[in-house]
Amino acid sequence: MQHEETAASCANEAVAALRAALGADIVSLPDEFGGRQFADWSGTPSTEPVALIRPRTTEEVATALRICHQFRQPVVTQGGMTGHAGGACVLGGEVALSVERMNGVVEIDPVSATLTVLAGTPLQVVQEAADHAGFMFALDLGARGSCTIGGNIATNAGGNRVIRYGMMRDQVLDVEAVLADGSVIGGQRKMIKNNTGYDLRNLLAGSEGTLAVITRAVLRLRAKPRAISTAWCGMPNYAAVTTLLGRAQERLPAGVSAFEVMWPSYCDFVRQRLPELRVPLASDHAFYVLLESCGADPERQSAAFEEFLADMLDAGVIADAAIAQSDADAAAFWAIRDAPAEYPRLIPGRISFDISFAVAQAGDAAQRCDERLRARWPQATILVYGHLGDGNLHVVVQEPGWTDDAIAEVKRVVYELTGEMGGSVSAEHGIGEEKLSVLGLSRSPAELAAMKAIKLALDPHNILNPGKVIAG
Amino acid sequence: MQHEETAASCANEAVAALRAALGADIVSLPDEFGGRQFADWSGTPSTEPVALIRPRTTEEVATALRICHQFRQPVVTQGGMTGHAGGACVLGGEVALSVERMNGVVEIDPVSATLTVLAGTPLQVVQEAADHAGFMFALDLGARGSCTIGGNIATNAGGNRVIRYGMMRDQVLDVEAVLADGSVIGGQRKMIKNNTGYDLRNLLAGSEGTLAVITRAVLRLRAKPRAISTAWCGMPNYAAVTTLLGRAQERLPAGVSAFEVMWPSYCDFVRQRLPELRVPLASDHAFYVLLESCGADPERQSAAFEEFLADMLDAGVIADAAIAQSDADAAAFWAIRDAPAEYPRLIPGRISFDISFAVAQAGDAAQRCDERLRARWPQATILVYGHLGDGNLHVVVQEPGWTDDAIAEVKRVVYELTGEMGGSVSAEHGIGEEKLSVLGLSRSPAELAAMKAIKLALDPHNILNPGKVIAG
To answer: Which residues does the UniProt record annotate as the domain FAD-binding PCMH-type (chains A, B) (predicted)?
Structure first.
């Protein structure tokens, strides 16, 4: 009780100093929050912060952190609040720093193919600005309208095009960020090659608000694809799936831009629960692959794509295939892969996993996972699908009426298997608060110690997003 | 004097402990070095180490570092000794740890498209193993026969194909490394997506032996190109050069795998000093571009490449062009770009710069650099060329009989200009010892402080490659 009072008065002192330095417009207090929500999409419990800071400039962020550093006041940075791991949730006692007012594209440099943007800008705004300038911004994910560039960098977001363009870190040339003590690094450089010491940009990408507040970034733009070829393939077995992946990378002139694999249970689920969607192939197959190739030359690409699929059919790699003849066809194929948007309605209370393995092991991992879960919960809904070109599996498990204990047990089964098989407990969603307890299944004690040493070096008072990524 | 004696005896105590723990086969003393050289390709003065450690296993590296950590004994890690920045030179008092015995490909996983390799393996061995397995390893540079994978990672090596495949860090899925205290991290993971906390792999890539000794890596393999299209283009002005780059990225079906730009002085130099090389176009142009596109579909790619160049000629973007009709033609084009291999013979005592800028600014930077140097040294040989698709310029300056003062002054002129224009003082060669004094032109005091904090967090006694990258 004594301790809580001390903490509260300390927080108040910090808040008072923040409000004095930055004003009431930037620093608001709980009675001024007006019903604002502070939770993200993960379902992680989130409380109210002791204050909300909404700076307009990097200098204001620096002032805020300097004061928080001085008063040992914890800070959680918030962007679009679309995270899946609770990284932006308020655990208790933090001030929330929202980058919502740092919103806008600063500059597009078409010759250097770069876009400079403030951290609070939604991903979709960046995509549209790039498109308007004749380029493509390569990151794409379902939350595009809400998620922010700062959050995309802080979580090193993934999405559908990683196989071709990489994760968010691969779209970033420089990051401007405010460190815990208020010092400002980076943010103006447009160079692709820059070997001048440690790569702070890649250290911040994926650090989930624990090392700095990202305020601005220089992003890399890509040539806009002028031709998109899409096919829906029925596959006889997992070996055929990986063979198709390898051959497609070797033979498709424009490479592979998406390689989405769905296990039969996933397609059965779509057929039964979303009958308005048309599953392209009538017959049943052991696996389904959505193959996409994005390139520059519509006619030649289309001919090469059809030739490739015909060869794969002849060779028995593919059992059956449908090639999209129109944008509407392609959209219909993607609608099946995008069915997870309907999960909240169709399978409430589901448990979702975002894990990854070596491509060679992902099929085995999925099978073992299914077997172990089935052995315990024969009636459960178990859906497996993913960006297999990157080794990334999404596993969704649900049984109506499950208790908290059962949920914990499902997680234990899946994460332990992931650890056993040398996989990653978080392929693209990050660690946040939610996966902190299983991080040790994918990272060794020496790695966790190194991460903690870096954290303490850059944030000695542990004010930045405590309780996330780094164990206390 | 007293201090030096203490240091010497301390070193001896460490060496004695190393020898006791690892044996004389692994730890050799100066009188056993047998004339071995300890300098790299940079020309940075290098002395003899107090001992040479040649471990065979990661465990032996760990034992060595544990002892060095305990005795505060500095360590310089050595690979192929082909660095350009003095990062592997012995400054005085260090033990040298050579990874030469940790040599070999451990595993190729063709389904996951990965290759696991020990750090001391030469790059060329990896390239050949990948090729033999039906893949390509994407990093390539002139020193391929001598440089090692560990050194490639430690320096984040660049080379000719960065525009398509990225730097060395983009070829690495996981790194096994021994930290200063002897703890071992990473080295087994084959996942492309893995968002489990801080990206230690990217932190080690480019850290030049100051954070860890790299012992093993999991590398990413790429599909082997089945068709290579190459052209030599004469360009009317710099705007046309950047226009060609943008259009090629947008329109070539297989994208751009090399975009090498040469300024006229460079081609004149080749014509005059290497008359055995055939410069493809007879007429003079403001710039020359070597354009390459690597893809999967020989016939269609070749047709599309020719069509693209014809369009660029029609549009006046290109003034004149020669398309390679054979491998011999392509080799002849590349021979001009590879003329720097003849520098030691043709322009001894030259000063070489490896700098980068935003693509939009690189032309202006080169011109200003030339003007400032010419104003002071009208007779100097000044050659400019580079991987312009990445903003990377190589500038070579020479005048016979220059004094040390003149050399220092030339460096000042070029690096100050680089700093003024927000460029990088080291695009691909790293900092080592040689560029430490100019690092502050490309990195802010806050960034240097953050780098130093990370260094001290992971290597509190500063035993790993002291005097390199991080100012003392």
So the answer is: 45-224
